[in-house]
Design brief:
The structure holds three protein chains of three kinds. Chain B is mainly alpha-helical. Chain B is built from eight helices and one strand, in the order ααααβαααα. The longest helix of chain B is centred in the N-terminal third of the chain and has 23 residues. In chain C, helix 5 packs antiparallel against helix 6. The chains are: A mainly beta, B mainly alpha, C mainly alpha. Strand 1 of chain B pairs antiparallel with strand 1 of chain C, so a sheet runs across the interface.
Chain lengths: 301, 182, 179
């Protein structure tokens, strides 16, 4: 009976046998480990900065500076998965800053978690999941199924114009997306969100009190579905087949070049206004926008 | 994967009652089937929280869709179909742009066996490490025993693609198990 | 630890029970839909809106999904006393579930702890956002109290509750990167 051969290629043996790379705090760091061209890289830092750069080498290189309060930096790579993690002492109070520049194979899937560290990312073509609590996140994103999230930090994302599925959210920070395309899910509570997209198949947006602005070129059968409570919504949308709309506000106004004289009251006796339009052609894009008291502005040019 | 007739009859009686709004009957169906539904969702999503979400979503959708369930079909398969759909919806992306070369004739493969026994944990980890499309096909065909056509239907892909993904999955799985020396 | 060994892929267990019982959340959603179907008549439903929307019944299904995940609206008891119909059905769905109440309390305690550990400026910013969410929910409920059959308000209420859950969870999970 043929035995399942365990071909342990020498480079893989090296990967599997690499000891956990540990750097004590308070000093410079410089470490390079082999990595898969399309492997996963997971980076976490509490405070300071994380600067991610995609490059052409099948290696992850970590350089930077660890603050005195940092207990250590772990760099571990095995099975196509690389972890770069800043460790602070248990029960630690204080900054524990680390400034990290991490170069990763550009096809990597990158996950970054930070508390107050700012995150920047450039040149990564794979999926990115970037999360910070209060740090700012500034990223060039072109990988499908990517997510960029912050709780109170501002988020700035530049797409590549290539259609992908992207989720961007903040609780109290502002959100800016430029040159996006494809599908977008954007959520803010009180920060303002501004989105510019080409070739858009779907935008789902949600705001509570922040203002939401969407400039998008929709595809045939594209969809926009946005909701707000008191935040204002501004939609500048073009679509080859025209727009069908289902727009309603409980106590806000509806305005814009599309609205013209077509806004009607929901009921003769109660509050609420709506704008329901049918696209002229089949395959028109569909727009749905609802608010409680926020203003809704919509224009198709 | 055929159940004894008594079990099928039992299911049918519960389904009939559930259709009429009897949520306790539906609970019994839930208890009977949740393990298999969750097993599939967990391995497809690789995330226990997301898997739990998918299971809940799937059963709620199933409740609402009961009027449309055809009695001759297998309830278990129907639930799996809804679960797979739920997972795919939650993945939130366009289908992966990989181009799979389809050659349906090549990929009639027997059940995946290992000459040397493999630890369950190691096998699960290797499955979890597979790319999405390959993993989906391997789970549905290789573990849950669906025919290529059925699995392809659930995943919304062509049968040839499903076979190609399965073939790819088997190759990758062997490779990863070979590499996986601790 | 060594686990069982297998020689065939299909020797792996097909059935893997979930770590916790998911039935309470499913049951709450089913019961809420049944109750809302009885209460809400003629709710408008736009043709292409996905299921998680308009009529309270459909919206509550989505809300029910969150119950089991310990992503909970902060204010069961704080829901405006005047809310009728839509608000009441939402509250009923939540309060029926003892698991949900327990998980909500745990989530709120964790969120408070997380807020306390944040620097003041950031804590103030995040608390202000969470308060904005809570106020918006109260505002919608007040409007619903005066206009209980209003489908737009019902939908906004449910999605605001969902947003609050999402924000609370984001705050709770934030800072999990430390050690």
């Amino acid at each position: 009976m043929r035995m399942l051969k365990y071909h342990v290629r020498s480079s893989l043996l090296l990967l599997g046998a690499l000891p956990l790379a540990v750097f004590a705090g308070g000093g410079p760091v410089n470490r390079t480990v082999p990595a898969d061209a399309t492997g996963e890289v997971e980076i976490s830092n509490v405070s300071g900065t994380i600067d991610v750069r995609g490059w052409d080498r099948n290696e992850v290189q970590v350089t930077g500076q660890l603050g005195d309060d940092v207990e250590r930096l772990d760099v571990d790579s095995s099975g196509g998965h690389t972890v770069v993690k800043v460790i602070l002492p248990r029960g630690h109070v204080g900054d524990g800053e680390a400034t990290l520049e991490v170069k990763v194979p550009k096809g990597s899937t990158v996950e970054v978690g930070a508390v107050s560290a700012d995150i920047t990312s450039k040149g990564v073509l794979g999926t990115q999941r970037l999360k910070s609590v209060s740090g700012e996140v500034t990223a060039d994103v072109s990988g499908d199924d990517s997510e960029v999230r912050s709780v109170s930090g501002d988020v700035t994302v530049r797409g590549s114009g290539k259609p992908i599925s992207l989720r961007v959210s903040s609780v109290s920070g502002s959100l800016d997306l430029m040159n996006g395309a494809g599908k977008l899910d954007v959520v803010t509570v009180s920060g303002d969100a501004r989105v510019t997209m080409s070739e858009t198949t779907e935008v789902r947006g949600r705001t509570t009190s922040g203002d939401l602005t969407v400039n998008a070129k929709l595809t045939r059968d594209g969809r926009v579905d946005v909701e707000g409570v008191s935040g204002d919504i501004s939609l500048r949308l073009t679509a080859p087949g025209g727009l069908s709309t289902e727009i309603e506000s409980f106590s806000g106004d509806i305005s814009g070049c599309l609205a013209a004289d077509k806004v009607e009251r929901v009921s003769k006796y109660g509050p609420g206004v709506r704008l329901n339009l049918r696209a002229v052609e089949a395959g028109g894009a569909r727009v749905r926008a609802k608010t409680l008291s926020g203003e809704i502005e919509i224009c198709d040019r | 994967m055929t159940k004894p007739d008594t079990v099928v009859e039992f299911d049918r009686a519960l389904i009939e009652r559930a259709r009429r709004g009897d949520s306790r009957a539906f609970e019994r169906l839930y208890r009977e089937h949740v393990g298999r539904v969750h097993g599939l969702c967990l391995r497809m999503t690789r995330n226990p929280d997301l898997a739990a979400d998918c299971v809940q979503d799937a059963f709620i959708k199933a409740w609402k869709a009961l009027p449309r369930f055809e009695e001759r079909a297998s309830f278990s398969t129907w639930l799996h179909r809804i679960a797979v759909n739920t997972v795919l919806e939650k993945r939130r992306g366009p289908s992966k742009a990989e181009v799979i070369v389809e050659d349906p004739t090549e990929y009639e493969e027997p059940v995946l066996t290992f000459d040397t026994p493999v630890e369950e944990e190691e096998l699960e980890a290797a499955i979890a490490s597979l790319p999405q499309g390959a993993r989906d096909a391997l789970l549905l065909c290789g573990l849950y025993g669906y025919e290529h056509s059925e699995a392809a239907g659930m995943l919304g892909i062509a049968v040839g693609t499903c076979k190609a993904q399965l073939h790819r999955a088997r190759g990758l799985l062997r490779e990863r198990l070979e590499r996986g020396v601790r | 630890m060594t686990t069982r060994q297998v020689k065939r892929l299909d020797e792996l267990a097909q059935s893997v029970p979930p770590a916790r019982d998911l039935w309470p959340a499913i049951s709450a959603a089913i019961e809420a839909e049944k109750a809302a179907n009885a209460t809400v008549q003629g709710a408008r439903r736009p043709a292409w809106r996905p299921a998680a929307a308009l009529a309270a019944a459909v919206a509550l299904v989505t809300v029910g999904v969150y119950i089991g995940r310990a992503m909970t609206p902060a204010g069961g008891p704080e829901i405006a006393a005047n809310a009728q119909s839509g608000g009441d059905v939402v509250r009923t769905a939540f309060e029926r579930d003892a698991d949900y109440r327990k998980q909500r309390d745990v989530l709120m305690a964790e969120v408070q702890k997380r807020l306390q550990s944040m620097p003041t400026a950031e804590r103030d910013k995040v608390s202000a956002s969470l308060n904005t969410l809570r106020r918006s929910i109260t505002e919608i409920e007040a409007a619903l109290g005066r206009d209980p059959a209003n489908a737009l308000l019902q939908e906004l209420l449910v999605s605001s509750c969902q947003e609050e859950m999402r924000a609370l969870t984001a705050v709770r999970e934030a800072g999990g990167q430390e050690t």
